[in-house]
Design goal:
homodimer; 10 helices; DNA-binding; Tetracycline Repressor, domain 2; mainly alpha
DNA sequence: GTCTATATACGGATAGAC
DNA sequence: GTCTATCCGTATATAGAC
């Protein structure tokens, strides 16, 4: 059945997604994914034509996941300030994985920048989704001219927090910084 | 002569330092370094016992380089605020390399977190050097209680700026954020 | 000390049986 | 569709000549 085939494909992508996040793309082998999914190495090439092809599928999955999250945040509140708070609070919700592995988007951009210049721009599209959405919220908040800059600024703050939290393995730092960010949001509102 | 030997060793470490920064540690092979230094692959093992050993030497070199930079900044000004500005302005001075490859410290921490848990803490020591030095400056500025937190905050801001600048390859963002950071420093002084 | 040659391991990718 | 067996390239690391 093609349905069963599609399901296996999704399981492969989901496992690859996790492993790429935890171990990095280059450092994750077909054997690693195969162990996770319980299939043979050779079987991969029925579903994907290369490792880059899996990376592509993982990025597409992440793009979809992010869009779903953004729609969720929009559904939960019509207030742009509260929507931006949803973004900031994501740091707290993911504090365990951030402490261990950093921000999935930032980490992937950094790695692809080193090893695969072609797909670096694809990974940056993950950032762009958040940027455009945040930009829209800041506009709705009344920041007509500098909405884009504020979005980039917030993106940057979140990246820095994830990076330092992971390097120092310091969850209390992450909590302090979330407070600082919410104060900042309050001040510009 | 042992002097000649020591010089070659330093050239190897300097080249490895550059390549690890530009391409990443895992993605840099002995051949890459050998081409740069013009020696044979086998010759490495006279000077280093493994690739990890080179990584160790690179981290030691970076620790020394950072200490020299901090001493330089101290020598250039007795004013703690100006000293902190030296740190912020480093972002501007290195804008070309940051746009291409990100922050050397952050990028290395991220990579070692994925592939080599043992040396991850060594890379974090690079962060700690800056953190302790900044902390001292904030103390001298009158922030007795929260000097440490302010230092971590500034570290985090710089990491975020480097990360986003590199992902978006956007030097104008970097310049805007430097202005934002100097304003922040002015406000807390 | 520096070289060449080589051992060894591993990862991505292919071929072909079932 | 999934498997096993295998090819091929590359990387670290070692051995030994010079």
């Amino acid at each position: 059945m093609s349905n069963k085939c599609e399901l296996l494909r999704q399981r492969i992508v989901a496992s690859a997604d996790q492993l790429f996040y935890q171990q990095g793309y280059e450092n994750t082998s077909f054997s690693d994914i195969a162990n996770e999914v319980n299939i043979s190495r050779g079987n991969f090439y029925y579903h994907f034509k290369s490792k880059d092809d899996i990376l592509n599928a993982v990025i597409d999955k992440r793009l979809g996941d992010i869009e779903n999250t953004l729609h969720e945040w929009e559904k939960n509140s019509p207030d742009p300030k509260k929507r931006i708070l949803s973004y900031i609070n994501m740091l707290h919700q993911n504090k365990e994985s951030i402490t261990k592995h950093g921000c999935p988007v930032g980490v992937m951009c950094t790695e692809l920048n080193k090893i695969n210049h072609l797909m670096h721009s694809d990974a940056t599209r993950l950032h762009v989704l958040f940027k455009n959405w945040l930009s829209k919220q800041f506009k709705d908040l009344g920041h007509k001219k500098d909405a884009q800059n504020l979005a980039m600024h917030l993106l940057s703050r979140a990246q820095g927090i994830a990076s330092i939290t992971s390097a120092f393995e310091d969850k209390s730092f992450l909590k302090r910084e979330i407070k600082t960010l919410t104060d900042w949001l309050e001040n510009i509102s």
